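Data card: per-record layout.
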Amino acid sequence: MHRRTRIKMCGITNMEDAEEGIRAGVDALGFIFVEESPRYIEPEKAKEIAANISPFVDLVGVFIDRDNVEVQEIVDYCGLSYVQLHGSETPEYCSQLAYAASPCKLIKAFRINDSATPEDFQPYQDVVQGFLLDTYVAEQAGGTGSTFNWDMIESLTLQRPIILAGGLTPENVAEAIDTVRPFAIDVNSGVEIRPGLKDYDKLRLLLDAVWKVDLARIG
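The structure for this 219-residue chain is written out next.
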């Protein structure tokens, strides 16, 4: 059965970008709570944005190796829908969030290179809702602007929905979807003027490309 590709726009830092993304048709917005990131947003600002967006839009908080109590506090404070973990978080760490008194829905990110194997993902299968696959770049957890070998994903035999990230642009997103058939894509640097500021023309072109490839799959 055909289903459409969901679209998450990450690196939201201001209300205008959030509103324009929703107006254009994205399904989810990502807030990066990593102070070292050029797209970092304070929880107070994220909460302000979250309180003023349209309903039925998922809100995703991005974290790297942060204390799980702090993560839970930010989730509750901002009203987030999902937690996206981009560090070396263990399955045990994920379980603590997934089965907390106020449980979090989790997406575990993996930076992919040629050494990736199914065994890397197996311990997380029962505690996360999806796997985000990003490009491996040393010392960079995300927003790389680079793609990876999409053909290798099939060999990973993943049992959870795939969110594809890593250098997706209006020019390559159709090929990415045709190759991977992900549940969703995660776009960031490919629709930016500069880190933290979105390019609405690029965003609309990318969304058009996604919708066209989805329609073509219907036949």
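Known properties of this structure: The chain has a mean pLDDT of 93. Strands lie at 6-9, 28-32, 58-63, 82-85, 106-112, 130-135, 162-164, 184-187, 192-194, 197-198.

See the next section for split statistics.
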